[in-house]
Amino acid sequence: MTTLTTAPLAPLLNRLFEEADAASPANDPALADLLPDHDRLMRSKTEYRDFYAHLKDFPLSVSRETGTLLYMLARGAKARAIVEFGTSFGISTLHLAAALRDNGGGRLITSEFEPSKIARARENLTVAGLIDLVEIREGDALQTLSAGLPETIDLLLLDGAKALYPDILDLVESRLRPGAFIVADNAEYSPDYLARVRAPETGYLSTPFAENVELSMRIG
Ligand SMILES: C[S@@+](CC[C@H](N)C(=O)[O-])C[C@H]1O[C@@H](n2cnc3c(N)ncnc32)[C@H](O)[C@@H]1O
After folding, report:
1. With a 6 A CB cut-off, is 58 part of the ligand 1 pocket?
2. How far apart are CA 220 and CA 204, in angstroms?
3. Residue 85: helix, strand or coil by DSSP?
4. Is 211 a residue whose pLDDT tops 90?
């Protein structure tokens, strides 16, 4: 039995994924104006705050498969310290925190700038009985993840503004232990990030994995 597959978390995740499936920004008439610019906005380093403000009512979560992968990687790595860029409603956070619980405890630092999303994530983590493992840092992750990180980090999830993936990696890289995993969702929107983790001399092994996920391991 695991925290992931039993109550209260399992039924909560079922409900949250069902709600996420039903709430696609692509079908929302209020967001139709954004659609022609979607690709550019996903890659933008200057317009991400406004872009995500438009999307504040959408979970934009990792897939069920990626959620399970996150739990498995964190368990397999015996992770005790995890950093997440992009909390949203906390669906990925719930998987990672469940792994920490089943590893015997630890610390998960996650970052989000939309206050209403932080409130929802906090509520979900409380219902799941996992809030004690999670510190939600409110504000732009470029600032909130720039200090006060654990000495050693076992797993990094990149799932905020795609253009910032290299910048967030800069903040965390020196603390990633050899063998640490980095999971980057929708990394195809961040070609600079992909070029970096796929270049052998930069200290990573990296491979595309499942749909839209880049899975990397720190080896340097
Ligand atoms: C794709 S969603 C994250 C989904 C979440 N990881 C999950 O699976 O449930 C991206 C989130 O990152 C947040 N975000 C984007 N750029 C950010 C930044 N620079 N700092 C803090 N939060 C950011 C957005 O508001 C949005 O909620």
Report:
1. no
2. 7
3. strand
4. no
pTM over 0.85: yes
Kindly state if the Cβ of 110 falls inside 6 Å of ligand 1: no
Is residue 161 over pLDDT 80? yes
Ligand 1 and 164: CB distance under 6 A: yes
Amino acid in the structure at residue 45: K
Residue 88 Cβ inside 6 Å of ligand 1? The answer reads yes
* pLDDT tens figures, 50-109: 999 989 999 999 999 999 999 999 999 999 999 999 999 999 999 999 999 999 999 999
SS3 annotation, 96-162: HHHHHHHCCCCEEEEEECCHHHHHHHHHHHHHCCCHHHEEEEECCHHHHCCCCCCCCEEEEEECCCH
Least confident of 26-35, 53-62, 209-218: 26-35
Q: Which two tokens stand for residue 35?
A: 């659609």
Residue whose CA lies nearest to ligand 1 atom number 11 = 86
Q: What is the mean pLDDT of the chain?
A: 95
Give the integer Cα–Cα distance in Å for 204 and 181.
Answer: 9
Please choose from 47, 113, 172 the residue to mutate so as to test ligand 1's pocket, defined by most ligand atoms within 8 A of CB: 113
Nearest CA to ligand 1 atom 7: 61
